[in-house]
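Researcher: Sequence recovery benchmark, item below. Answer with residues only.
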C-alpha cells in the first residue's frame, strides 16, 4: 500500500493497486459550517450541501488520478487542487 500526503488541506491518499481511500480536513459538519461562515440563520443548509458535494467530487478526482498513476504530489497538480478548492469556497460560501 502506498500513502501520499499532499501539503494542503490535510489530504491523505492510500492506494492499494487500483483501489484506495482518501481523507482530508475539508469536510465539516453543518454546525462547524454554520459557526465558521454564517451569522444569522440556518437558511444556508443547501449551500453547505453544495459545498460538501463539491469537496467529495474533488476528493474522488484526486483518488482516481492517484489510482491511475498520476503524480498527485507534483507542485502543479497541488496548485491546481488548491485553486479549485479556493474557487469552491468563494463561489459556494
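Model:
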Amino acid at each position: 500500500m502506498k500513502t501520499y500526503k499532499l501539503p494542503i488541506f490535510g489530504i491523505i491518499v492510500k492506494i492499494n493497486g487500483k483501489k484506495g481511500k482518501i481523507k482530508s480536513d475539508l469536510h465539516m459538519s453543518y454546525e462547524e459550517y454554520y459557526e465558521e461562515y454564517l451569522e444569522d440563520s440556518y437558511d444556508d443548509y443547501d449551500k453547505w450541501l453544495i459545498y460538501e458535494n463539491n469537496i467529495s467530487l474533488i476528493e474522488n478526482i484526486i483518488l482516481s488520478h492517484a489510482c491511475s498513476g498520476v503524480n498527485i504530489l507534483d507542485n502543479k497538480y497541488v496548485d491546481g487542487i488548491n485553486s479549485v478548492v479556493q474557487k469552491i469556497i468563494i463561489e459556494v460560501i
